User: Fold Nuclear prelamin A recognition factor from Sylvia borin.
Amino acid sequence: MKCENCTKKECSKKQKNDETQSTSVDALSSNDGSEEKNELNTLANAKILLSDCLACDSCMTLEEGARVFQQNQKEFFRILNLNKKCDTSKHKVLAVSLCPQSLPYFAAKFNLSVNEAAKRLCGFLKSLGVHYVFDTTIAADFSILESQREFVQRYQRRNQEEHALPMFASACPGWIRYAERVLTNLVTSHICTAKSPQQIMGSLVKGYFARQQNLSPDKIFHVVVAPCYDKKLEALREDFYTALYNSPEVDCVLTSGEIVQIMEQKNVSLKDVTEVAVDSLFDDLKEGDVVRHEGKRSDGYLEHIFKHAAKELFGMDVKEITYKALKNKDFQEVTLEKDGETVLRFAAAYGFRNIQNMVLKLKKGKFLYHFVEVLACPGGCLNGKGQAQTEDGKPDRALLAQMEEVYTALPVRLPETNLHVQRMYQDWLEGTDSRKVQDTLHTTYSAVNQSTSSLDIKW
Assistant:
């Protein structure tokens, strides 16, 4: 996309050779502990590069830009340094959540298995002073289960509600921001209301885990390690903020590449770090081996929802899904036939060119799909711009191939089989159909008025 009309806004697409920051950004970035020497004082503040940004309609506000700059390694180490001081009133419990699509990057980069990478990464983070390291797979379980239920409900209401179908996946913040900032309510009304795994993990850490540990949510500093920069923007959404405790669900997002920068700064290789078992949200349990969801490059919303809908709506057990590539490998469809009729038609649309074509068909009334798994990154989440990039900002295709190989080799666990999730629905969320489920696991999406229009987008 080409950046235009940036006279009143801070452009989110910073050039790679841009070594300066505005004074307003500097002012907003400084806070408690800014006078102390940071352990990583030579690292640049977080930037969303021209080649990285997939999120918006050319620009974000100055305030948003400043808050994104705060989500960097320096802020992470500011909290670590505060914890080393004697003033316990400023101490924070530091929890880091690891996205499943980040682990294959560390595994491939350091020639480790995914399980080894997870444990060594846990060991490295705890050596820095992190108290807890979690796996976000359980949050994806919740997100997928809620998306499955919502799709079935929308399908059953399709003849009564104009915007019931199609349903678009809501896990990708780049897609969500584009839909809200550029597209109309014609599109946003079709987005699934289930929160993304990142933000559900925020609810689990600041809600469930905080209660288990008898902690106020604002006493936890929650960091997410993710494959893309757009996750930083997602963490800033106002609806993911608990006003009562003055606490966001996710305080800071660091990309996989930023974690590697920390390792390089400290002259540490993940291969030399002692393995430490990843923590569980439940009592003193530790996580077992890493598992994944169906889907080769993401959390597999399409496959899980498709199989669930086939069973719930048509009584059909689908064991294997056959993808049909259309215009390109990043636009594929899956169909279900019964009695010679196509009853379900799903699609996967990755990358903004495919998303744009999809939206044009929707606006023209020529949209045939019931559900679309929409991801901003071509190739899916493994190809997030916060990892597996060469020095000139292009995808490292050899590394990506290794990442996909180790990721698809992981065993698949169906969300329905996670006993911890089922127990939490009853004990913490007061049942699967409760008001608390709606408040904790769902949000709403709507068009945001912008001074720049979608005509400013250059593809």
Q: What stands out?
A: The longest strand covers residues 341-350.
